[in-house]
Every structure is written in C-alpha cells, then in structure tokens.
Amino acid sequence: MWRATVLTLFPEMFPGPLGVSLAGRGLAAGVWALEARDIRDSATDRHRSVDDTPAGGGPGMVLRADVLAAAIDAVDAQSDRPRLVMSPRGRPLTQARVAELAAGPGPLIVCGRFEGIDQRVIDARQLEEVSIGDYVLSGGEIAAMALIDACVRLLPGVMGKLESSTDESFSAGLLEYPQYTRPQLFEGRPIPEILVSGDHAKVAAWRQSEAEALTQARRPDLWAARPAAKGPAKGESRKTPKNATDG
Ligand code: ADE
C-alpha cells in the first residue's frame, strides 16, 4: 500500500485536510496510509530539545542533525523510499515528480520548522529538498500536505478517469480551459455558444485554443517548455493516462 510517513514537530496537524474529501475517502478505504511521527520522540536530553542556535550566529533556531537523523533512522533504516524535506530552497515540485512519487512506495517527508535544519542531516541522509512555490510558509507541514494530496489523487481507486484528464492536460504543458455549467445565463453572461452547440469536434478545438491562449498569457515558461511544442501537432489525440484504470 502507498504510504506517506511525515516527520514533524506538529503531528497533530495530520491528517487535517487529507482526512476529508477524495484523499480522506481513500485513506478510510485503505487505498493509502499516513503516518505522522513526532520528531521530538527522538530527542535524547531530558528537556526533549530538538533545536539549537545557528552556528555562526544569526536569528532563530536550527533543527538538530542528531535528533532528526535518529527520527529518520527509526522509520527508514533499510528502506528505499524517497526521502524528502519540504523547503523553499528545494527544487520546485512538478506534476511529473508527483506522478513518479505516486507510482512508488510513497515518500518519507521531513517537515522543517525554525530557520532550517542542520545541513549535515540533509547530506548524510540524502534528503531531496522540495519546494511548493516561491513563497515562505511557517513550516513544511502544509507543503507536505499539498505534495501528499497531489500524489494520492493519482493512486488507482482514489479518483475516476474523468478527472484524470485534467492531469493529462497539465502534463501536456497547458493550463486547463475554462468550464461552465448551468444556468445558461448568469448575470447577463451566457455560456459560450460553441459549448452548447453539441458539436464535439468544435468543442474540443475551442477548449484547446482557450488552453493555449491562457497558457501563453499566464505561463510563458510552461508555454515555451510544453511537450506539444516538440511532440504531436495541435488537435492530435493524446494518450490515456496510466492511472485512469478505475472508473
Ligand atoms: N517550507 C516553507 N516554505 C516552503 C515552501 N514554499 N515549499 C516547501 N516547503 C516550505
């Protein structure tokens, strides 16, 4: 079973939002497992201290290498699971990395707090630093939840294939086209004519061009890097996503 193990100073934050909706139903159904472990349980002194002042001076506190290493080793001694640490310094998380993580046994995720964690434990335990965006959260827990949520929704049995097409569109390097539903007229704004025409080919072409326009305008980086730029021509049919086996 796919399992996320989270090392945190705030295990009570979990499952939190992962306990409701799609992820929560999967968790309750045993499709995946979540283990939140308290780093403080690996402290060795009588004050159970986990952090100390930064070597060289400066503000804040740094998570101790020995305590965190002991917490990692207690989980992970002989496992080949990916070991991640959530950090704004990390490589930005992508849907491609999410898909890899979802396809594996599930990660061990260290959540940083304070000013950071001792670099030696990152090196010695070969932690992969992962960022969820260029902004600073007060700790790695919410970032870990975002990563886990993104993985869990790809697990077989968590979501149907309809929704998976969204990932496919994102993986193809485009933002999603706009969606509409009833009422037909909302505050004087009608649903675009084409979408109520019943012409499926025209609908598909309209969605493709909306997605392209949106991506060009909002994400020139994605637009420049999109696989479609080198791969299949516009309008060509796309492959079915690997995980779309559970209807
Ligand atoms: N911890 C604090 N900020 C973060 C971010 N942007 N991504 C991942 N982990 C973090």
From TrEMBL:
Compartment(s) of residence: Cytoplasm
Reaction catalysis annotation: guanosine(37) in tRNA + S-adenosyl-L-methionine = N(1)-methylguanosine(37) in tRNA + S-adenosyl-L-homocysteine + H(+)
Gene Ontology MF terms: tRNA (guanine(37)-N1)-methyltransferase activity
Binding site for S-adenosyl-L-methionine: 112, 132-137
UniProt cross-references to SUPFAM superfamilies, sorted A to Z: alpha/beta knot
Chief subcellular location: cytoplasm
Superkingdom of origin organism: Bacteria
GO BP: tRNA N1-guanine methylation
The tRNA methyltransferase TRMD/TRM10-type domain, residue ranges: 4-224
Entry's EC annotation: 2.1.1.228
Residues covered by region (Disordered): 217-247
Record's keyword annotation contains Lipid metabolism: no
Protein family: Belongs to the RNA methyltransferase TrmD family.
Quaternary context: Homodimer.
Name of this protein: tRNA (guanine-N(1)-)-methyltransferase
